[in-house]
Amino acid sequence: MTIICKSNELYEAIVNVSKAVFKKSTLLVLEGIKINVKETSVELTGYDLEIGIQTEISASSTGTGQFVVNARLLGEMIKKMNSEDVTLEVIDNQQIKVYGGDTEYTIMYMNAVEFPTLPTVSDDAEVFEISQPVLKSMINQTIFAVAQTDAKPVLKGELFEIDNNKLTVVAIDGYRLAVRDETIKYDGQNKMIIPSKALYEISKLLKDDDELTAKIFISRKHVIFEFSGYTVYSRLIEGEFHNYKGSIPDSENTEVIIDKKEFINSLERASILINERIKSPVRCVFNNGALSISCVTSIGKINDKISADITGPMMEIGFNCKFLLDPLKVIEEDKVKLLMNGGNLPMKIVPVNGEGYTFLVLPVRLKSE
After folding, report:
1. What is the DSSP letter of 97?
2. What confidence tens digit (pLDDT) does each residue in 347-362 have?
3. What are phi and psi of 176, to 5 degrees?
């Protein structure tokens, strides 16, 4: 059996499906990519039992069949080859030749029977479609708030909640809450918790073309995404997600409209004095048409000021600089609205006009100066 395909197409496919391959496993087959040779194409699959990525590229072949090859080895070989086309030829003794131009490798392959079976779309699976750029934006604007510890496993994923033609994506880590809403065509209710690992890889594969859509299949234990020649499989996280709606304040005392870029620049100037070893909150004072930002660490101190449109009483509040920067950096609009109820209560960040996203950032208790 011989397969001939474009080396750049094969390499891109290997790189992308390898995101679902174990780097090290007691089962060698899980460190490999399953290659399914068809008459006019080659299907590549990576699957680490939690996330699976599958794609197909054009190829000419003599014969059909399946085998598994170490993902890292095959990727490095194709990357180093100086030829437009590459050939994979299955020979005796479970060996495969990989050659292009004057370069030829011979490596071992594994039996595809040992490769785990991917989840299937059940007949009763729910399905909906969404614009690829919109889905990408929803993931990127929330995934920063996913919990990084195992204390609450459900918080290591994102809640996808559908309620009568509205999709809401939610992430929370105990310090921040990120919520994104979009209208979709799905007349009903559903919800699932998708691991952030799968969503991170999906966001990198999604295209920015408004004409392209992604199809999402929901079953009891798995979710499957189909888009742009890729199929991504992910297990769902079981359990009850945090009651995020009860955490969002419905009123405020102080409202601030501020230039997002100026706010980010000021916080980044303060962050020069902060690192993993030297931590200190930034002090934010909203008063008299300005935001004053200050920070004192063992390295030094900073005092900075930017203009702001403030409605309501003066507000003094402290934040972990990174936790405040993360939501600001994923907002696309030039200005944002900050809503506050006091120095010890969360800051709510919303659009100046309309809806679409809501971010909450917990404050840090400030020491008296």
Report:
1. E
2. 999 999 988 999 999 9
3. -140, 155
Residue 238, amino acid: E
Split at pLDDT 50, 70, 90, the class of 220 is confident
- Band of the pLDDT at 343, cuts 50, 70, 90? very high
pLDDT, tens digit, 9 for 90 and up, residues 243-290: 999 999 999 999 999 999 999 999 999 999 987 777 789 999 999 999
User: Structure tokens of 333?
Assistant: 């609009």
The CA–CA distances, whole Å, from 171 to 147, 156, 182, 243 equal: 8, 8, 15, 11
pTM of full prediction above 0.85: yes
SS3 347: strand
Nearest to 136 by CA among 236, 213, 26: 213
CB 346 within 8 A of CB 167: no
Strand pairing report for 85-91 and 95-100: antiparallel
Please give the span between the terminal C-alpha atoms of the chain, in angstroms, as a whole number.
Answer: 76
Identify the CA nearest to 226 among candidates 55, 15, 48, 49: 55
Task: Supply the DSSP symbol for 71.
Answer: H
